[in-house]
Amino acid sequence: MPNIEAIQSALRQQKLDAWLFYDILHRDPIAYRVLGLDHVLAKRRWFYLIPAKGSPRKLVHRIEAGTLDSLPGDKMLYAAGEELEKNLKKLIGRTKKVAMQYSPKNSIPYVSLVDAGTVELIRAQGCKVVTSADLIQQFEAVWTPAQLDSHRAAGRAIDAITQAAFSEAARRVSAGESFTEFDLQQWIVAQFRAQGVVSDSPPIVAVGPHSGNPHYEPLEQGSSQVRRGDLLLLDIWAKTPAPDSVYYDITWTGFLGAKPPEKCAKVFSIVRDARDAAVQFVLQNVAAGRAIEGWQVDRAAREVIRKAGFAKYFVHRTGHNIGQEVHGTGANMDSLETRDTRRIIPHTCFSVEPGIYLPEFGVRSEVNVYISDGKAEVTGAVQAELLKLLA
User: Fold this and answer.
1) Where are the alpha helices (DSSP H) in 14-144?
2) Do 357 and 212 contact (CB within 8 A), yes or no?
3) I need a labelling partner for 280 at 20 to 30 A (CA). Which of 24, 57, 122, 143 fits?
4) 329, 321 contact by CB (below 8 A)
5) Helix (H) or strand (E) holding 378
6) Residues 324 and 245: beta-carbon distance below 8 Å
């Protein structure tokens, strides 16, 4: 059940008349999570309007009349298209400025889930449609104390699994075993089961040129052999299986040898410094009580890499919001792919993960940063040096 009073208070603070939820065929998962509609799959359009003042209103199809019965508010029905438009006008009423899962010019695509035609339909009622991005962050991305506990529990498991995976790779190389990126990935997946964590997809295990691909996926066929002298990148994310648990997501790199090549060590140090610059920017500003936006964090990291001469090799945003999905719906640390102007608010978490991706190898270093009231913290282990995995 959504906290209607809290949503209405937020609407008044943002000078909005209402938040209008709309869906068909589960195209907007945000709506279901915010409204607590866990077991609903509507094959017809439904609308749910929470006004800044007064009782919510809902509009559902006659053959799916019970779709929103778990939510408070007066219900209207429709069957024919003409009846839909007639009752939609009643649903909107005197609302003049309504938030929807929409983003002007798709500037924040992660929350832009309502189709253009439906936006046009609402505008035809004489209503201005604005983005719900800030509302989503407040009512979807904010963690409870239990969720923070779940993140820390997952972090303890993932930090241990990551170090164990590097040790396992070093052991196999030292023993002269033949194994691939996929083989090591599957070893990590088995550790997930043993440690009681789950993930939406397997981790990234990459060596050589594959580590220069930020979203490389090792497959059973075509994975590279892992050998002495390789740079090994591990990007691992998981959460506990408890309801509403949230993810922990990190990336570390190691060298399967005693002394990494100078270029590898140099690139790692630049990435590390970029990561640390972004983290320090967050820690200092939060402690000082200054508001910061996602794009500013990205800029702090990106400037370090630019000054080092590797700007064109840093091809993604610095970080993403973390929630029940590994890529959550709160503010992203992004001034490259988009310009995320959302404020970073208390009780949210995000990754900081700059990278440099060259044709021969790539380096990324990722930590998670949690914002509490007046304080920010990195929630797990932090890699200070490129790991030297063999004597």
Assistant:
1) 29-35, 81-92, 116-123, 133-136
2) yes
3) 143
4) yes
5) strand 375-378
6) yes
pLDDT of residue 39: 77
Q: Give the tokens for residue 234.
A: 């591990």
């939609």: which residue's tokens?
Answer: 88
| pLDDT score of 302 | 98
Question: What's the token pair of residue 155?
Answer: 């972090």
The CA–CA distances, whole Å, from 190 to 26, 81, 161, 242 equal 32, 52, 10, 19
Is the alpha carbon torsion for 94, 100, 102, 104 positive or negative? positive
d(CA 201, CA 178): 25
Beta strand ranges found along the chain (DSSP E): 18-23, 46-51, 57-61, 74-78, 97-100, 128-131, 204-207, 231-238, 248-255, 321-322, 348-352, 355-357, 362-364, 367-372, 375-378, 387-388
User: In the chain, which stretches have pLDDT less than 50?
Assistant: none
Give the model's pLDDT for residue 195.
Answer: 97
The pTM of this model reads 0.94
Residues for the chain: how many in total? 391
Instruction: Provide the token pair at 132.
Output: 């719900």
Instruction: Please check whether residue 49 is in contact with residue 91, taking contact to mean a CB–CB distance below 8 angstroms.
Output: yes
Residue 215 neighbours by CB distance under 10 Å: 8
Q: Which domains does the chain have, with CATH numbers?
A: 4-140 (3.40.350.10), 142-388 (3.90.230.10)
C-alpha 120/C-alpha 65 separation (Å) is: 25
pLDDT score, position 42: 87
Instruction: Please state, as a whole number, how many other Cβ atoms lie within 10 Å of the Cβ of residue 340.
Output: 27
Instruction: Work out whether the CA dihedral 353, 185, 163, 194 comes out positive or negative.
Output: positive
pLDDT confidence of residue 125: 94
CA distance 282 to 344: 9
Angle made by CA atoms 373, 374, 375, in degrees to the nearest 5: 95
In order of 98, 280, 377, the CA distances from 135 in angstroms are 12, 27, 24
